[in-house]
Description:
Helix content is 48%, strand content 16%. By secondary structure, it is an alpha+beta fold. It has a single domain (5-75), classed as Orthogonal Bundle (Arc Repressor Mutant, subunit A). It has a three-stranded antiparallel β-sheet with strand order 1-2-3. A hairpin with a 2-residue loop joins strand 1 (20-23) and strand 2. The N and C termini lie far apart (36 Å).
Amino acid sequence: MEYEKDKVDQYTLALLYLVRWQDGDSSRAWKGFDWETMNRLHEKGFISDPRGKAKSVILWEEGFQEAEKLFQEFFGKKK
C-alpha cells in the first residue's frame, strides 16, 4: 500500500511525545512503532538509533521540540 510517509512520520513523532519520560537530562520514548518509520525519524535527526536491545529511544532536543509541537497540533484541545 502506498501512503504519505512524511505524514506517518509526523504522527509517530507526536505519539512518541505522548509516551515519553524524563531520564536524567534526556527524554526517552518507547520504540514500539513501525521500524521503517523509526529509522526515518532517526535519519531526520529526531531520535537516537532505534536498532539495538534498548526498548526505548532518546528524543534529541530538536525531535522533542518538534514532537511537542506536532502533538499539540494534532491532539491538543482547540480553544
